[in-house]
Amino acid sequence: MAEPTISAIMPLFNGERHVGEAIASVIAQTLPPSELIIVDDGSTDGSRALVEAIETPFPKTILDLDNRRQGAARNLAASHATGKYLAFLDHDDVWYPRHLEVLVGPLEADARLGWSYSDIDEMDGDGGLIEIRALKSLCEFFDHPKTSLFKMLESDMFIFPSAAIVRADAFRQAGGFDNRLSGYEDDDLFLRLFRNGWLNHFEPDSQVRYRRHPTSSGFSERMWISREIFAQKLIETFPDDRDLVRYYVRDIIAPRFYRAGHAEYIRHLPHERWEQCVMSVDLMRRYSAMMHLPWFRRTRRALTLAVMRHPRVIRSVHPFMRWLWRLPWLR
Predict the structure, then answer these.
(1) Pairing outcome for strands 6-12 and 35-40
(2) What span, in angstroms and rounded, lies between the C-alpha atoms of 80 and 267?
(3) In a 10 Å sphere around its CB, with 0-12 CB exposed, 13-18 middle and 19+ buried, how is residue 44 labelled?
(4) pTM for the whole thing?
(5) CA–CA gap between residue 298 and residue 211 (Å, rounded)
(6) Does residue 218 surpass a pLDDT of 70?
(7) Euclidean distance between CA atoms 258 and 162, whole angstroms
(8) How far is 160 from 87, CA to CA, in rounded Å?
(9) Residue 148: which of 196, 203, 110, 191 has the closest Cα?
(10) pLDDT single digits (tens) 278-326
(11) Taken in order 80, 82, 86, 91, is the CA torsion positive or negative?
(12) DSSP letter string over 160-188?
């Protein structure tokens, strides 16, 4: 019986430090891909020369883009792919040797599956292991595989592209990644796959090492814009349905992005990123207005947000508030 054809797809941007290790993990697969397609997305370091020099036991194609980001790079590669399955790998992540074998197996066994994915092991920028099976600590709502639209809308899905394999026909039917998104493009894709009727398989044993960089805690304008585009897309796609008493926006989508704004505020406050703090409060106000709250909660929230819009004040009293909270009668 012929082995399934798999197109390994790798977006590349200034990945000279790590891309060699990523490609080595593709070569080491127990079930080898039929091809490797690398998209150089405008690298300015030595990445391009490095990947050109690496020999692979399967065909290797290198395509070029002008800094269009990962979603567009993956789409370009997918348009050239010949495999039955698309296996994505970011240039700084590493597959374990049985990654393709483990994740393709369920897809071959069940034609209803549109994608399969695994848990992840987290490593730092230097490759040091941080946590095994890290999904449980990354998401509050640990729901895998994905079986409920409501749960997919209420929080980030935490399906990492490097940990997923997608059936090529399902990917093309869904229209691929949304090129406008640079962040949340994975949630957007997998949501559309689910809505198209494709089931999914979750492998609880990690099949990839995901690299988390120190810069991931900083502010990214592209990520901010991408989240806004994605949120608006959800609001337009899933309006509140009074007849079926399903208030997607009021009860699910708006609270989700309100929480996201609050998390952004807490993240930026210690670093004194005042402008980002104010932006976060404005975000929270916008989504709070879409929610249905009792008058006393609405009033309390309005007052809280008014105070939070002055992050310098919040920052100055924060140590005192932490000391107060230690007093037993105020807990």
Answers:
(1) parallel
(2) 40
(3) exposed
(4) 0.91
(5) 41
(6) no
(7) 28
(8) 11
(9) 191
(10) 999 999 999 999 999 999 999 999 999 999 999 998 887 766 555 544 5
(11) negative
(12) -GGGEEEEHHHHHHHTSS-TT-SSSHHHH
Distance separating alpha carbons of residues 13 and 65, to the nearest angstrom: 10
For residue 12, give every residue at least 6 positions away whose Cβ sits within 8 Å of its Cβ, in sequence order, or none. 19, 38, 39, 40, 41, 43, 47, 48, 51, 73, 91
291: which residues sit within 8 A by CB, 6+ positions away? Answer: 250, 251, 254, 255, 258
Residue type, 266: I
Which residue ranges make up each domain of the chain? Answer: 6-215, 218-330
The token pair that represents 86 in the structure block? 């698309």
Could you tell me where the DSSP H helices lie in the chain?
19-27, 47-53, 69-80, 99-109, 135-138, 149-154, 168-174, 185-195, 221-237, 254-268, 274-288, 295-308, 311-325
Q: Tokens standing for 61?
A: 């194609």
Tokens 């932490």 correspond to 322
- Would you tell me how many other CB atoms lie within 10 Å of the CB of residue 141? 12
pLDDT digits (tens, 9 = 90+) for 101-115: 999 999 999 999 999
**What is the per-residue pLDDT for 318?**
62
Question: CA–CA distance from 182 to each of 36, 170, 226, 227 (Å)?
Answer: 23, 21, 6, 8
Chosen CATH of 6-215 out of 3.30.1360.180, 3.40.605.10, 3.90.550.10, 3.40.50.970: 3.90.550.10
Label residue 140 exposed, middle or buried (CB < 10 Å: 0-12, 13-18, 19+). Answer: exposed
Are the beta carbons of 151 and 143 closer than 8 angstroms?
yes
